[in-house]
């Protein structure tokens, strides 16, 4: 069951003495400027003062939120079309065996130590 409430995050920024900007994080274009924090966000502030709650609730009357599950076709990486091309190639198998044997070998006779200094 869905809740009849919408939870949003209010951002209140004091720009200078006598100047406060309040906005809603999830709705960045919903923003008001007032002389103090209470005037910017409080719905109980005197009539005539534009505050964030009134502005937002008025805007919500014209907004519809729709959840949409977008079907995404999993794409195969470009290199996958080449995977397995040498699977049945006897020369490739021989090369791979030589590489495995060299990796497993403790022989470092081909390494020139001056190269690493």
Question: What's this model, at a glance?
Answer:
The chain is α+β, with helices and mostly antiparallel strands and 117 residues long. Helix content is 25%, strand content 18%. A three-stranded antiparallel beta sheet has the order 1-2-3.
Q: What report would you give on this structure?
A:
The chain is α+β, with helices and mostly antiparallel strands and 117 residues long. It has a domain of 51 residues. Strands 1-2-3 form a 3-stranded antiparallel sheet. A hairpin with a 2-residue loop joins strand 2 and strand 3. The longest helix has 15 residues. The radius of gyration is 33 Å and the shape is elongated. The N and C termini lie far apart (69 Å). 7% of the residues are buried.
Layout of helices and strands:
Elements: E1 10-16, E2 19-24, E3 27-34, H1 37-41, H2 52-60, H3 90-104
Antiparallel strand pairs: 1-2, 2-3
Mean pLDDT: 80
Beta-strand level of the residues, as a percent range? 15-25%
This entry's quaternary arrangement is: single chain
Largest sheet: 3 strands, antiparallel
Number of strands: 3
Question: Helical stretch count?
Answer: 3
Work out the helicity level. Answer: 10-25%
| Overall 3D shape | elongated
Structural class: alpha+beta
Question: What letter string, H or E per element, gives the SSE order?
Answer: EEEHHH
Low-confidence region ranges:
none
Please give the order of strands in the largest beta sheet: 1-2-3
- Tell me the Rg in angstroms: 33 Å
Distance between the termini: 69 Å
């Amino acid at each position: 069951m869905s809740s009849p409430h919408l939870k949003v995050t209010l951002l209140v920024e004091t720009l200078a003495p006598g100047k406060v900007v309040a906005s809603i994080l999830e709705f960045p274009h919903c923003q008001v400027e007032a002389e103090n924090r209470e005037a910017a966000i409080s719905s109980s502030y005197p009539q005539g003062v534009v505050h964030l709650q009134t502005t937002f609730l008025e805007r919500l009357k014209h907004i519809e939120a729709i959840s949409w599950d977008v079907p995404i076709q999993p794409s195969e990486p470009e290199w996958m079309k080449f995977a397995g091309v040498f699977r049945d190639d006897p020369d490739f198998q021989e090369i791979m065996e030589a590489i495995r044997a060299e990796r497993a070998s403790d022989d470092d006779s081909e390494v020139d130590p001056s190269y690493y200094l």
